Amino acid sequence: MSKIMVKSIKNGGVVIAIVSMFFAGGINARSAGLNPDSLLNDVNILFASIEEIHPDMFANCSRKDFEKELSAIKSGVNGNTRMLDFYVAVNSLAVKLNDGHTHIRFPYAELKHPGVLLFPFPVEASSSDSSVRVTDDYTESGDAIPLNSEILSINGINIKTVVGKMTEQVSGEKTFYKIDRLKYLFTPLLHALYESREFDIEYRFNETVFHKRIRGITYPERYERQSQTNAGAETEPYSATIDSTNNIAIIDFRQFVQLDRFAKFLDSTFTRIKKLNLKNLIIDLRNNGGGNSELGDELFQYISKVPFKQFGETTIKTSKQKKEFYKSMYKTDDTCALGIVTMQSGELIKLRNNDLRFDGNVYVLQSHYTFSSAASFTWTFKHFGMGEIAGEESGGLAVCFGDIIIQKLPYSKFSYTVSHKKFYHYGATDDNIHGTIPDYEVPAASAMNFTIELIQKKSHPRAAGK
After folding, report:
1. b/e per residue, 264-290, with b = 16+ CB within 10 A?
2. Is 131 helix (H, G, I), strand (E, B) or coil?
3. Rounded to an integer, what distance in angstroms lies between the CA atom of residue 164 and that of residue 130?
4. pLDDT tens digits along 304-361
5. Does residue 374 belong to any structural domain of this protein?
6. Which runs of consecutive H residues, i.e. helices, occur in 109-253?
7. In a domain, 186, yes or no
8. Pair 215, 251 in one domain
9. Residue 292 and residue 257 in contact, taking contact as beta carbons nearer than 8 Å
10. 3-state DSSP call for residue 13?
């Protein structure tokens, strides 16, 4: 068994944690035939690629310490290295950059191999205390563990230890964002870090502690069931509902995608809002991880009363990989010279004539998961005084890296993304090492009810005061 000692350097280099990572001692069906030289070549390509594409690779970590860890990982690759062990090693390296847009995508194909059994419970982790609660049950019976049970340990490992190890595999600038991401990554990361076919689960329900041993389930049982459960409105990138009782329109905005479709959605939604003479609008971004920021500009044309702009100064790095990616993805030639340029903010975006512009009260809901273009939206919304925000600090920061170049390692076939821009949200400086701060700080799960009650109080102040 080969052991790797990896230094995990936190910002400033003040705290150094020693992480022991073991590559499995035996080759199994999923690792047979892996070529150590080819894996090492992938490591070298990953490092060189990030260094060439990223505008400031070592802004949030020490180059010296990063290269020490790189060397340790390379020395641990051998004929017994399994593919998921290799993923854990190289992904933890990318995570050290503290850039939520630069990461290696989890190789879900590794979970589809015969014999792999997975944790059968979707969960949510709390960023406040790293507790984990069951949100669904995909076992055959469907009632193996009560929903909302708090998991205390899995196979004898304390859940806080599990969550801590998992956050070392999630890219992001803030720990609370990484923990929030576990609602999507818990099952694959549990398999990658603590592979097992059965799970001894200690959990608490109604103040009583229970133990249960549960057999895992296959990939189709886990993820096809999830697809069926999530079918419907929650899979739509955006949808609108009307709360006529409280005179509220609610836009559930989950993805910044499909600009043309979004423009049509906004036209029909705000036509309906105007026809119903609604005076309150809630835009829910709690489950939005970003996408194309142009959708934000389009929505601002319906809710802003002043000219606006999402980004101030932007640093852009043009590399050979960027040129090749743009030509492949966007079918266009990138004529920029190789190197780094800094673009200033320029003029604010003027409001166009819009008969559907909303003149009522606008509220935005956000969470620690609100990231990338969604966080840019909430920052701009607050900076230009378009309304009020309820929820948690956004996971995306005021100064951040982004706009990804997608690459693939030649041997392992791992897909990875690398930022090639550094953004300053409009009005932000290097001192703003935080996300958008809400006007009303409440747990994300409570933000909708809180905002509806706030609207009721403002609409009926006398009744609210009784």
Report:
1. ebbeebbeebeeeebbbbbbbbbbbbb
2. coil
3. 8
4. 999 999 999 999 999 999 999 999 998 888 889 999 999 988 899 999 999 999 999 9
5. yes
6. 159-167, 175-193, 219, 225-229
7. yes
8. no
9. yes
10. helix
